[in-house]
Amino acid sequence: MKVTVLIPVYRTPKFLGDIIAKILRNEYAYKEIVVAVDGVLTKDIEEALIPFRDKIVLHAPNQHMGKARLLNEATSRLDTDTLVFFDNDILLPEDPQFLNRLTQTMQRYDIVEMAKEVIKESFYSTMISYEYIGFSIVHSLFSLISERLPSVIGSAFAVKKELFDQLGGFQHVVHEDVDFGARAFRLNARYTYSIPLKVKTTMPNTAQEWITQRKRWTLINVLWFKDNIGYLVSKIFSQPSLIPTILLTISPFLCSLLVFFLFDQTKLVYLTSAIFLMTQSQKYIYGAFLWAINYAMITKGVLNMLVGFLITFAMYYTFSRIGKYRFNFFEFFVYYFFYMPVIVLFHIIIFFWVIVKKPLNLEWKVSN
Hints:
The chain is α/β, with parallel strands linked by helices. Helix content is 55%, strand content 13%. The protein is built from 14 helices and eight strands. The chain has an eight-stranded mixed β-sheet with strand order 3-2-1-4-7-6-8-5, with helices on both faces. Helix 1 links the parallel strand 1 and strand 2. Helix 5 runs antiparallel to helix 9 and helix 11 packs antiparallel against helix 12. The longest helix has 29 residues. The chain is globular. The two termini are 35 Å apart.
């Protein structure tokens, strides 16, 4: 099986040299490396490529055409069996058998997505690291139960060239990778999410970088939902394996909802009169009675929130141990109670922005 590794580069080489060096050190012999440069071949990119110029194929059209079109052109004339895409902000493991293990996995699947772990360098990248653990949980569940997923995170994944050609490559859209995964899903392509092939990736470390990335990511989610939710709903009952996968994915919400209804049925508010008598006989402060009057409402709200948090924490922590992700309770607490509400707000704002069809400045080229 011939493997072609494609590395798109735009402006800065980041880990380009490191990726090439590690692929070349891999013991898998039947491989080639294609570096695709979007836009100008800068001095930094040229310097990063100097040690490898006779060992790679350079695709540099000297035109800023966008990632999707660039990769489609770079792959159009390749004679290969498997395409492996690595963004140049990916850090590969020091594993000379990496491609061997990848090709063994590709014998069973059409798409292999490598697990990603975010390098924690700041508050922003730390919070995003827990988002990626969440992605990994969902992708792993779909992989294990249904072997299909209507999405893919395109920074590190492999696909059979035959399937890539059948789908016509990437579409010229801002969400080219998740769109590719959704279209592959409709063709019943077999998918797996590989923890053993885990790579590391960098994320924004400043507020401005985070906002820029967040606008694009949120728009991607909104567009994916708009394009695919109808199809997914129509396929749930014709694809039984999707049902337990979806239920497990939303289990924290379902458990919180169950707690809400259980406590609603117990009518705890009726206990407030007894609590009042007890507080009076014991001459407790009047504030205790005020707290008791609202006990049912407070209990339902706090318990719902607490149950959701504990179940989500258990899922994230367990998966982190299995996948060997770095995990910290206090970081996760901040992520769950403070960071996620901000993300939800972003989604709501971008959703209505898309509805009214206002343009977003994403600094992301999709076509000419």
